[in-house]
Amino acid sequence: MIAIVVLESTAKLVAAGLLAVYIGLVLMSYRLDGSGQTLRVSWRDPVRGLVRLCVWVGVKALVSIISIGRSLFTILTETSADVGEEYIRRRPHSALATFRSHFI
Questions:
Q1: Is 66 within 8 Å of 34 (Cβ atoms)?
Q2: Which of 20, 22, 12, 83 is nearest to 58 (CA)?
Q3: What is the C-alpha separation between 37 and 61, in angstroms, rounded?
């Protein structure tokens, strides 16, 4: 029973270590090669080709996540500015004059 728990814990630790190495490979590949990384697979070494394929897929996924994040950030920034303008516009004129004298 204890051997099973130790084996499961060891398997989880090894999986976490492999995941950390994979994330490191993806980040370093993105940092060194950028988003235009080309897939280089050698059919003479299928294991290394599989690793390069996995890293290439990870880089493409990272590029997609960054692109979506930038788009969402742009939308949220514009929306926040619109909400701020609407809030300022709906305030009474006396409060608006006070606001402008302090900040503008």
A1: no
A2: 22
A3: 12
Mean pLDDT in runs of 10 for the chain (104 residues)?
Answer: 92 96 94 82 87 92 95 92 81 67 56
62 close to 30: Cβ distance less than 8 angstroms: yes
Beta carbons within 10 angstroms of residue 61's beta carbon? 11
Distance, CA of 27 to CA of 11 (rounded, Å): 24
The whole-model pTM stands at: 0.70
Q: Is the dihedral of CA 86, 92, 98, 104 positive or negative?
A: positive
Are 40 and 59 in contact by the 8 Å Cβ rule? The answer is no
